[in-house]
Amino acid sequence: MAVRTIGEGKAFFFFDGKVVEGIWKHDSLDLPFQYLDTNGNPIKINRGLTWVGFLPNEDSLGATSLGD
Fold it and tell me: Please, what is the Cα angle at 48 between 44 and 53, to 5 degrees?
């Protein structure tokens, strides 16, 4: 995937049957994206296939949990 953007924005991470709110951060085109929780801690991505999607406007971003 080629996303050429610098900055940060709202993010939702879905793994292990739960949703975690956080941010994505990209400081330079020469560095990888960072994925952080709301406390600024790195999100640990499980091994295996990972899907990343980007929306043009964070106003349209939301998630609802259906329970445990």
Answer: 70
* pTM score of the predicted model: 0.70
DSSP for residue 60? G
Lookup result for tokens 């956080």: 22
Residues 13 and 35: beta-carbon distance below 8 Å? yes
Question: How far, in Å, CA of 19 to CA of 66, rounded?
Answer: 10
What residues does each domain of the chain span? Answer: 1-43
Query: Going residue by residue through the chain (68 aa), what tens digit of pLDDT does each one get?
Result: 566 788 998 888 888 888 888 999 999 989 999 999 999 999 998 888 888 777 776 566 666 666 65
